[in-house]
Each structure stands twice: as C-alpha cells, then as structure tokens.
Amino acid sequence: MEEQRRGGPPHPPGGAAAPDGRPARRRRWAHGNGHGRGPRRTPWLSSLVVAASVPVGTAFASHGEGHERLTPLAWALLLLVPAFLPLRRRRPVLALAGTAVVTLAFLAVGHRYGPVFVPLVITVFTAVVSGRRQAAWWTVGAFWTCHALFAHWLHRHLPPAGDRAAPWGHELIAAAWVCAVLAASELARIKKEEWIRQRTERAAAARRRADEERLRIARELHDVLAHSISVINVQAGVGLALLDSDPEQARTALTTIKAASKEALGEVRQVLDGLRTPGDAPRAPAPGLDRLPELVEQAATAGLDVTVATGGASFPLPPGTDLAAFRIVQEALTNVVRHSGSRRARVRIVYGRDRLALHVDDDGPATGSDAGGSGNGLAGMRERAAALGGVIEAGVRPDGGFRVRADLPVRRAALPVQQNGDTMTDGGTG
User: Fold this and answer.
1) Nearest alpha carbon to residue 50 among 9, 77, 78, 23
2) What pTM value is reported for the model?
C-alpha cells in the first residue's frame, strides 16, 4: 500500500530490504528476474508428472526391448533424473548439468531406451529459452559425445557383459533428435524475446504517452491560471490600496477579481473536460486567436494597454496551431503583467505563406530573464512551439523592453478569407 501511495516501484532495486522485510533479491526470484522473463514459480506439478512417468515408461521400454530387468542402481538413477526438474527455472544450468550426468550414468549401466531422455530434453529447452544458450549447446555436445563413446568404444567395459557396439545409424537418429530439440528451443527463445521486446516497447510507449499527457495538462493549467491569477493579484493590490480612500474604485477592482476568477474556473473546467474517455467529443471548442479581444480586455483590467496588429492574408488556422498561438500570446501578456513595469504592450500577428509569426513587445525596464518569469511560462511556450515544429525566441530588445517572438509552421486548411495589409486594434486605455 505504501508503494502504491507513493507511486514508487513495488520491488526495490539492488539488495535493499523490501517493505515486507524480504531482501529485494529474494523478491525478484519470487516475482521475476526484473527483465520481463516472467514468474519464477517452482514447476512442482509438471515435475511430479515426469518423475512418475519416467521410471514406469523406462521399465516398460526396457522389458519390451528384451533387456535385463532394471537393477536397483538403475531404479535409483531413474528416480534421480527428474529430481533436478524443479530447479530448471531458478537454476537452469544446474538442472541441465545434473540431468545430463545422471542420464549418462543410467546409459552406462546398460539401459539405453525409454523416456529417460525426457527430463534432459525439458532442461535443454528451458536453458535455451532462459538465455543460457552456450551452456545448453556445450552440454548437449558433451552428452552426445559421451553417448557415442559408450555405444561404440567403451561398451566392452560397461554392463551388460558381451554387449555389442550399436549401429552408427542410431547416432544419426540421435543427432537428428538433438538438432530438432535445439531448433525448437531456439525458436521458442526467439519468440519469447520478441514478445518481451514488444511488451517492453508497449510499456515504454504507455509511459511516454502518460508523461506527455501530464505535461500537456500541466501546461494547459499553467496557461489557463497564470493570466487570470495575475489579473486577480494586481486588482487585489489595487483594492487593498484604495479600500479606504476610494471605495468605489476598490469595488471595481473586486468586480474585476470576480470576473477573472469566474473566467479561470471556466477554463479549468474546460481543461478537466478534456480528460475524457476515448471517443467522447470536447464539450467546448479550444480557444484560438479569435479570442484575442478577451485577452486584451483582461489585460486592460490589470492596467496593461495592449495593441494588436495583424499583417498578411489571414486564413483559418489548424486547431492545434490556433490554440498554441493563443496560449503563447496569453503567456507573453501574463509575463508582462507580472514581471514588467510597462503599461503598454504590442501584439503583432503576421500570416505568411506557410508560417505564422507572433511578436509580443513591451517597453518595461525589466532586463535579462526577469521579464520572462520563473521559466515555466517560457518553457511551456517553447514546448508548444516545438510540438508544431516551430521556435520561440525571448529576450531583451536592443532599444529596451522585452520581446517574445514565435514562428510556427502552418498547413493551410482553406483558401485565404481576408486580403490586404495591416489592421490595427486598440486594446483599451488601461
């Protein structure tokens, strides 16, 4: 519960103790190896099934081939062969080596047939799939070499007495089985690694989308609230200063505060409405440059006289570009109100052939990065511009004051709807 509340990983890295008191390394063995290879549960059921089948099947096979009855040593080896199977997931190399050695010992006592090879096949498969390919190949090669030595050269020194060399055709069949087992194991390993890779990529993509969504929400909330709260802050200061000397002006400031807070609540509600389930449509259109007069009016209530000029042939902007342009202008004017001593600002919007240029200038005495605010606003503007392939330039003008310049690429959605040169809009007296 604590990890979920804090949002931290459920299994601490390294060997540090976990919240439940168990070392993290032991928890990894219990829950997985941390690299997407799945749980490390001990395969008791399958191991018991194989352990019961191998002795019985080998006894029937040995009897059917006319061999002597299994000796007590052979029975002991048959029971020992599957004993390594429960370790095949936790210790695949140990399980493979132990199974191979015991199987060779069983062959050395003169019993060559039956399902005694099944545990070896299972451990080879598990070792390859778990990534221990080199150990598996070396073990299989050594096992086949020893099998050939037993069958063709050492049979005279091994029980049963008088046993003849096995036909070489048996070795070809054994080699074919070995190749088939290794090929199936490698194919399963490739499939598993591909599945792990795809799952990792999907998880990374989901985290990336979540991060982008959090960033988008944070940027929207900052853009929505910063402007209104700046107006509220300025008007609250005016109201406090004039509360006794000019109650009517203080009342006007309070009215402005109420309107700005209502506007902020409405825009926050609009952002929250955007956190909808897939398939739902937005309840309200996203703001665009058509709402610049509202920005100008809000700035005027904060004592900032804003002049808006447009140039070029205007045309409908794509929604994403329109929203980004509006938010950039909004944030730039907010920074003027909060960080500049200027009482005048100029906004110029230039429609190019496939570009949209935005200029926001003020004549305040602020210098350096002070006019740009704490950095969150400029960072948000740059992120919005970069998402569209545009750029933001912000800095002190040579003749004084501060300038924010945005250059956004535009893919036209329709023919121009307005022709001619510059138009001017006076935002108010402030």
Assistant:
1) 78
2) 0.47
